[in-house]
Each structure stands twice: as structure tokens, then as C-alpha cells.
Write the C-alpha cells for this entry.
Amino acid sequence: MPLFEVFVRPRRGLQHQHAGSLRAEDAELALQYAREIYTRRREGVSLWVVRSSDITASQEDDAPAFFDPADGKPYRDATFYELPNEVKGL
Amino acid sequence: MSLLEAVVGLGDDALVLGQRLAAWCGKSPWLEEDLAMANTALDFLGRARLLYGYAGQLGGCDEDAYAFQRDARAFTNLLIYELPCADFASACARQFLVDAFDALHLEQLSASADPDLAGIAAKARKEALYHRRRSAAWMVRLGDGTAESRRRMQQALEDLWGYQAELFAPVEAEAGLVATGVLPDRAALRTPWLESVTATLEEATLAPPSADWGVDGGRQGLHTEHLAPMLAEMQHLHRSHPGARW
């Protein structure tokens, strides 16, 4: 049975977040199971399910090239701004 | 029939079906379905508690006494809810037939002249619409599935068809409550129910059975041979340790 990844939007204004995975025959069943398993206690207001096989993922070998940036470039980091209090969810 | 008796009958429908569904936890085709079945069971158990709780306010006993201290003869659930439906196709088919009924019945009941009953029905209806979506999807998945799943689903429908009649059979004792707008006229729900069921069966490539038999007696406490053994299992702990708390 295909594996599906489940994404839950916890509340309006926030993005969908990965919650876990489950197995189901088809997308409709996956959506129903996601509701049963991940949102029965008001955990969310919206659900996405996507076949795990449709996700293109980075590989272990990619790690140095992808995730290990050169040091000494603090100007690239968006840390010099003061966030207004009204901005939440960042 | 008094309002109290009517409320207890509806509570019995929900409790007995909830117990049958709960028995699937651990026996479903896979883990996700175990959880889905158990969640559905809990929805019905929750509905039973609301109804028994209301019955208590109307002068009845407490919810545990309703669930655990009555024998089969005192239960007034309709018979379709108590069938074992030990094969998964059969459990899905029963659920589909009663969910389609529930969606219509609870819509009418949520307009009941009795405001408490109307409130309980409105709450239950939201769940019922989800249940119907879930069980209809299983009808299509199994009916329009493999040769074996289709054969089992068609057989399940044939075996159950005589029991759906009771969902719509007027009970003489209910007539007074129907006339005063407390209970819906269940007989009038048959046509819209058949339309909605037939549409799903067509999609599932299944044929509506042409069975000409029908059973009744549930609301009078006359049951199949299946209810008493189920109650024995459900009640034995409570009866072995009366008054126990945890």
C-alpha cells in the first residue's frame, strides 16, 4: 500500500506543517485516515496528503554542497532587522 | 411511548453499534483502519452517552445502568445495529446503510419539537456526514474492487437488506411523538434514503438487492440471537465488580 505524507495547518494564518505519514490505498482514504489520526482533537483546520513517492528529496551525499555554506558572510543572514511584535509565526 | 423511552431507544441504537464497531479495533485490515473504526465507535459511544444522560434528566436512571444493567429484552435498538457483521465487507455495508439513514434522520431530528433532542441531533449530524463519506468510499472501493471484494460486498448487501426495512417501519408506539413533532416520520425517509444509497451502489457497480423479506421488533425489545452474547461480553466486567471506580 502506498505511503502518504500528512501536512496539517494548525490554524488559519500558519503554514501546513509535516505531521507524519500513513499508508492508504488512495488519496481519499489517506485524507480520511489523516483526519482520524492527526486532527481528531482540534489539531488543525486544513489537511494535505501527498504520496511520499512524489517527493523529491535531497540525498545524504548532497549535504556538503547544499547545507554547509561558507563562513564569514554574516551579511547574508537576515538578523539585522527588528521584528515588530505583530509579526508572529516566524 | 414516552419521550424517555424514545430517547433510550435512540441511545441503544448508538451504544450497540458503537460496541460492534469497537470490536474491529485490532482486527481491521491495517492499523490506520483500526484507528478509524475505533474513532467511529467512539463517536457512537459519545452519542449514546448524550442520549442516556438526557434520559437521566427525564427521570430515567444513570448512563451506566442503561448500558450495563439491562438484559437484551430491555434494549430497544433497531436490529440492524446489533448484527455481528464479522466480515469486513459486511461491517462496511451495514455502516453505509445506517450512515445514509443517520444523515437524513438526524437532519430531521435536529428540528425536533424537543429542544434537547434537537441539540443532540445537531451535534451528531456533523459526525454522521463524515461517517457517510467514509463508508460510501468503502462501498465503492470494495464494490468496484477485486472479484472477491465485489462478491463479498454484494453478499453483505443481500444479507443485510431485510434489516434496512426496520429503519423506516412505523412503530405504533412512536406515532404520538411523531404527531407532536418530537420524532421524525421515519417512513418518509425511505425514498430519499433509497435514492442516496442507490447512487452510491451504482458507482460501486453493485446491484440493490431485491429482497422481499424484512424484520422488525427491535423497538419492542424483540431481538436477534446476536444481541445477548454481545451484551454478556460488554457487561460482564461491570456486573462482576458492581460500583467499581477507576
In short: Chain A has a mean pLDDT of 88. The interface with chain B takes residues 1, 22-26, 28-29, 32-33, 35-37, 40 of chain A (CB under 8 Å).
